[in-house]
Structures are given as C-alpha cells and as structure tokens.
C-alpha cells in the first residue's frame, strides 16, 4: 500500500462536526466526499453510466462488483485543533439597524449568533493510502485532486461561501507555496481532465459545450485582494444576501398564490473559496453547471451580479 502525507493549514473557520453534530471535528468521511464530488465535477462525461462506474471503481460503491474504495484517508493534528465560536453569517451585525435584516423589514437582528468552529491557522495532516489505483488514475492525479479541492472548496457548513477553506503547506515533506494562481488551478485541471478546459484572460472555461446531466465546472475566476479574512467573508455574505438568486430560493408551487405549499430550495451552483495572496486573501469563484428538475428555472443574471460583487 502506497502512502502520501499532506500537511495543511486552516485559512477560514471550519464549521464541521463529529457524530454528535455539535463538537468540531475533522472527519475523513467528509474529506472523502469532497474529493469524490470534485473528481466528478472535472470529468465532463455525458455518459453518466460510464462515469458512475469509473467513480465507483476509484472511490468505492454499493455493489459487490465495484467493491471498496481504492483510496483511504486518515486525518490527524499533532498539536490538536483549537476551536472558537464564529458567526456563520458574518454580514449580520447582531444589532438594530443591521442592513440585511432591515432589507426584510426586521428591526432587531438575531442572525449573528456564533457556533463552535475549528479556528484559523490550525495545522492538520492528511494521510492518503491507496492500492491498485485504476489505470485511468495515477498518483500524480491524486495529488493534483487534493491541491484542487484546497483551492476550490472547503470543509463543513458554509463551504460554498468561503468557510472551511484550507491550504496545502507540504506534500511528502516537501514545502508547497501557499500562494495559488489561476495558472496553478489550470495545471491541476489539465492533470485531471486533459484538453477539457482552457485558460483565457485569467478565466478558466470549458473548451466545448457539454450536455452532461450533473454538476460540472463551467468557469473559474480569482477575485481581487482583500486585507483580511473577516472583510472577505463579510463581502461574500452580503453579496449572497443582495443577490439571492432563484438557485437558492426557487419555488415549485403550481399555484403561486397558494402560500401553504412549501418553498423549495437548491444549493447554489456558485462555490466561493478563499486562498492566500501575497498581501492578504482572494476569493476563488467556481461556477458549476446545474441540472434543474422539470418545472424549475434558473436566474443567471442574479448569479452574475453575485459574482461581480465579490470579484
């Protein structure tokens, strides 16, 4: 069995818990799910049956034919992980006159409550163990996938809005630069899905139209520099409030006048993570293709305004 040790550092508070749902804890199952999601998101396969077979042969599946995962994870922190309470909605002030609340005719803000999270600047290690990788997936691709999720994603709640971000600091004892560029992200995508993406004017886009019916990466941009994590997190939060699109507040009512029917919601297709820069922090904005159920509709202009408020 082969092993790779990856050292990481927490950039933004991680709202991730153990089995009790309250105590902050880094769990291998959560990281495994993130690896699986983003591996699928870069593949651009219109034949979903074939994609599912390849995914199961790599990460494991429920059937006897696919068997268990080829990749095993362990997470540790030699010095332990400190926790502190943080507000998952930092754009709310918790006081009267809070703009997001006033916009909804609410005078007293009650949405600034803090919950326990893994603190900033905590170090942890990921031990990757693997055996008999499929012929279409190499050790280098596994490393590129780990670097990619550190750039595009996060761990825990609110990870689509910048929380739970982390950076890779060393791989197999060799230091890694904490400053990620759009060229770095493009290189990792090329490792995982050759010739399927292009880099043009500092924006990563698909090379061709794709009709796959699952979330896949359509575009990646890196935004402007912010002087602190707090300022960037508040900007992301306020943008999500100001430009709350139909992706996250869509209504499937047959009769729009019937208020008794439940409002349906979809997860946002816009992922915002946070990376280090030379002078501060920058947002990485990843736009995913969304496959809507019958009867649903999207609101693309709102998503573009949301991204523009952060970029």
From TrEMBL:
A Pfam family this chain is assigned to: RAMPs
GO terms for biological process, alphabetical: defense response to virus
Keyword ATP-binding found: no
Signal sequence interval, chain numbering: none
Top-level taxon in the UniProt lineage: Bacteria
Residue span(s) of domain CRISPR type III-associated protein: 8-166
Keywords: Antiviral defense
Entry-linked InterPro entries: CRISPR-assoc_prot_TM1795, RAMP_III_fam
Name of the protein in its database record: CRISPR type III-associated protein domain-containing protein
